[in-house]
Amino acid sequence: MQESPFEPTDSYAKGSTEQALLDITIGADFSATVARFGDREALVERATGRRWTYSELDAEVDAVALGLLALGVGTGDRVGIWAPNCAEWVFVQYATAKIGALLVNINPAYRTHELAFVVKQSGLRALVAVPEFKGSSYADMIDAIRAESPALVDVVLIGAPSWESLIDAGRAGDLSRLDEIGAGLSPDDPINIQYTSGTTGFPKGATLSHRNILNNGFFVGELIAYSEQDRVCIPVPFYHCFGMVMGNLGATSHGAAMIIPAPAFDPVLTLAAVAAEHCTSLYGVPTMFIAMLNDPSFDEWDLSSLRTGIMAGSPCPAETMRQVIERMGAREICICYGMTETSPVSMQTRLDDGFEVRVATVGSVHPHLEIKMTDPETGKVLPRGEIGEFCTRGYSVMLGYWDQPDKTAETIDADGWLHTGDLGMMDADGNVSITGRIKDLVLRGGENIYPREIEEFLLTHPDILDVQVIGVPDPKYGEELMAWVRMKPGTTVLDAASVKQFSTGRLAHYKIPRYVHIVDEFPMTVTGKVRKVEMRESALELLGL
Asked: Does residue 147 fall inside a structural domain?
């Protein structure tokens, strides 16, 4: 047995391998769940009141799969899905997996420029979309880009005649074809392309295999003790890993039910779904939980069925976590950390972790993965307790960026380690605190300042609802701190002087924000990540820099 090159005091950890990885395709795993739990409820769409058992869901998935085959879609072809959360999204997800076509997730917020890029870059063969959403005509935008998308042969609009034709052709198809195709698929085949948020430049298409996302969803569910008894409320978007992997695959790999509260996040509709559907698990990014907890109707909803859930997508404020446990009753809520390129989860808190671990860290390494914190300049593994770049290796690391080997090589090194660009610190027990992004680190007068520390402190102010801290240019110190603050309703608006008064004696002087900017909302990606790049650009204008 080869000895580990790492010392016990190194910021390195390896996940348990006691429970084997699933060595099957998504389609095979789904079929196994249908065989075990066919009569149990699998999917609920609250907006329309539609419901499916696992057997009924399987029939819908097979119809879509055979319908795609009838269009001429084959294994390895790319099929786009451009829609908010709906039952048809789930049908297409599992149908493409059964025939070995790559599902290309398209952000519902995209418009013609971004749509054209993704369609062309992925070589999309077919596109399934809603005709319109939130007043935007998806059909018109698709028409506008078809001339520059020569590979795009078929467009199917959900609820329109083209969708009905697809389903009719599928219901008349030969089910044995799916068995034949499934027998020829490998867990290592690419099955999904997810485009990164693209906060700078064009997004990159993280290409993921059956093994990547099936196992990640499965182990996320295992670590929060999912079974066929669970009912998972999924208000996070399906087009992102949080929805389709941690949500859908996490549920179907355990026979749990997927509950779609609404096409897009709405705090009241989400609370209503948890209450009416007796959900045991609730997902969300911190801003979603903050919105639910602060909704005037919060106390009207019976959330007593909640046992667990996942808060992820961006750093989770300790006070928000405390309220989710105490007021929502989700006593087994956990934190997950990861990124699209890692399918997505690398770290997760455990059910038996104490409160401090759950609010101060992102937990410990996931099964079958390795992690380390390294010096960003030298690549050397740092001792525990020191801040370095979070790197991970294992089954969850993407196959690469679609048709961009150069970008892939910039992210995954020759030894298979994926460099996240996030800064983290590992404690003696192997739990990791994420302190920010390398590019978010503020250098003020020779001092390294981690915005996350300042944000956590300012959240203890009784009038502050949420806060984000960025660095802005300064001629004397190189950079100064600026806090963007969302105030609690009915509170006095803060200024830099009042923040300084609150912080003096409790924070080192160089960590006290020089500038304070009050806002109603932060600029966000659809996945709930704060766009600090956009905040910095706005700050330059605000400060006349």
From this structure: yes
Could you give the CA distance from residue 102 to residue 488 in angstroms, rounded to a whole number? Answer: 44
Cα separation, 132 vs 413, whole angstroms: 42
Which structure tokens are listed for 375? 């010096």
| Cα–Cα distance measured from residue 152 to residue 450, given in angstroms and rounded to the nearest whole number | 45
- 382: DSSP letter: P
Give the Cα-Cα-Cα angle 333, 339, 341 (nearest 5 degrees).
Answer: 140
- Low-confidence stretches of the chain (pLDDT beneath 50): 1, 199-200
How far is 443 from 385, CA to CA, in rounded Å?
A: 20
**pTM recorded for the entire structure:** 0.88
Helix 286-293 vs helix 318-326: angle between axes, to the nearest 10 degrees?
50
Tokens of 314: 């961006």
Query: Could you say which of 170, 186, 202 is where a domain stops?
Result: 186
Tell me the three-class secondary structure of 270-338, residue by residue: HHHHHHHHCCCEEEECHHHHHHHHCCCCHHHCCCCCCCEEEECCCCCCHHHHHHHHHCCCCCEEEEEEE
Quick one: DSSP state of residue 524?
Answer: B
* Domain CATH code at residue 449: 3.30.300.30
What type of residue sits at position 538?
S
Give me the number of domains the chain comprises: 2
Which of 165, 186, 207 terminates a domain? The answer is 186
Q: Is residue 84 domain-resident?
A: yes
Q: How many CB atoms lie within 10 A of CB 200?
A: 10
Contact 392, 343 (CB under 8 A): no
Residue 347 token pair: 């770290």
Provide CB contacts within 8 A for 543, sequence distance 6+: 472, 482, 515
Per-residue model confidence as pLDDT tens digits over 307-337: 999 998 777 777 888 999 999 999 999 999 9
Domain, as residue range, for 455: 441-542
pLDDT in tens, 17-55: 999 999 999 999 999 999 999 999 999 999 999 999 999
Do residues 284 and 278 lie in contact, with contact meaning Cβ atoms separated by under 8 Å? no
Q: Is 523 part of any domain?
A: yes
Let me know if residue 129 belongs to a domain. Answer: yes
CATH number at residue 82: 3.40.50.980
Q: Which two tokens stand for residue 472?
A: 């802005």
Cβ neighbourhood burial of 204 (10 Å; 0-12, 13-18, 19+): buried
Sign of CA dihedral 265, 140, 239, 98: positive
